[in-house]
Specification:
single chain, alpha/beta, nine-stranded mixed beta sheet, two-stranded antiparallel ribbon, about 30% helix, about 30% strand
Amino acid sequence: MGKVYVFDHPLIQHKTAMIRKKETSVKDFRELVKEIGMLMGYEATRDLPLKEVDIETPICPTKVNMLKGEDIAIVPILRAGLGLVDGMLALVPNAKVGHIGLYRDPDTHKPVEYYCKMPNDIDRRKVFVVDPMLATGGSAVASIDFIKDRGGKDIVFMCLIAAPEGIEVLQKAHPDVDIYIAAKDEKLNENAYIVPGLGDAGDRLYGTK
């Protein structure tokens, strides 16, 4: 079973509290999401493999550790997942970026695909699927299904806010996927929104509501 890692870093907790506040502006919300994405990405990339290489400093030759490869892909679930991409790219600027377009049917609450574009070598990359919210788990499960169908194997899911229901659904469907969460919330309400949550992340990122 993949691990579920809930961040306890003070900066992540503080910035997550800020994005929950209803009076936080679109500008501040967007900047905070980017910053949280970078902080979470720092921890989520902790297990990237290293190799020992020979270099020369201005003083002498020496051995140092460097990344074995920068074979990383970041895959945001559109549209809200885009808010986390720039923070991740600040850490791994050579990462490739795929995109998955899904929306939640307002009646069934199930994901509907409208776009999917992956790097051609997705099968050789560590894939970070990013979306601010893990609510019912339907979009996360469907997105990872699409990636696996295209050859992806080493997959991580990263989100800001998660409901226990969504975590359970994702773990059941994809037990091999690690889940990184900034905050684990109480539950889903009757409209499948996370409580206490932060509202609609896409609307708050782009000022569309």
